[in-house]
Design brief:
Distance between the termini: 79 Å
Order of helices and strands: EEEEEEEEEEEEEEEEEEEE
Number of domains: 3
Structural class: mainly beta
Radius of gyration: 28 Å
Strand order of the largest sheet: 8-6-13-10-11
Shape: elongated
Strand content: over 45%
């Protein structure tokens, strides 16, 4: 550069990093917006830049139903960037889960939807009403609670069962060997059934 000119250095951290310190002639200097400017350069200078890990931020996951009378949805809240979040949609009686949507577009047809958090999200669980006796499959899995016991009907051998509280925490997990399991913690729960790539969810009230 010419004698007496100004010259600006721009620092470009890789993703996941940020500028920690800038040294000019071995002295720490103030910098702004990832750049430093030499003013009226009349002699040689040295500049050294060190970088550090950029701490991950947090994002908000909002979950809601297309009709608040048709569902229970869980899993919303604040999550650290890069963490896995699971949102669960469980229909009320005479309703069925259809899909998860975001900004009007479908993102999953699984009632239990797991994803890596990288931004704020507003997820809507879409439910539909049904009330036809012809639609009831007598061979379908049936789950209900009574007197300290969760009853399981038509469950396929080897199915993993998880009991999930309203904060999305798995509070009980097992592979049932019979048609009933003792469970006494009061509250609303989602029962998730996992078998291979298939999964189903049901809601129960323990009183």
């Amino acid at each position: 550069m010419d004698h007496g000119e100004n010259y600006t250095f721009h620092f470009n951290p890789q993703p996941g990093y940020e500028v920690k310190e800038v040294l000019v002639n071995n002295v720490s200097v103030y910098f702004q917006d990832n750049r430093y400017t030499f003013i009226n350069v009349t002699s040689d200078h040295t500049i050294d830049v060190t970088f550090k890990d950029h701490p991950p931020g947090y994002h908000t996951i909002n979950v809601s139903p297309n009709n608040p009378l048709w569902r229970i949805t869980t899993g919303g809240g604040r999550y650290q960037e890069g963490a896995d979040a699971t949102v669960i949609a469980t229909p009320n009686l005479n309703y069925c889960f259809v899909r998860w949507t975001e900004d009007g577009g479908e993102v999953s047809t699984d009632s239990s939807y797991t994803f890596t958090v990288d931004r704020d999200r507003n997820l809507v669980a879409v439910f539909e009403y049904y009330n036809s006796i012809d639609e009831v499959d007598p061979n379908a899995v049936q789950i209900y609670y009574a007197s300290g016991t969760i009853y399981l009907k038509n469950l396929q051998p080897g199915t993993m069962m998880q009991v999930i509280d309203m904060l999305g925490r798995v509070v009980y997990q097992t592979i049932p060997t019979g048609e009933s399991i003792s469970f006494y913690e009061r509250g609303f729960y989602v029962v998730r059934l996992l078998r291979g790539n298939l999964q189903e969810t049901r809601k129960i009230l323990v009183w």
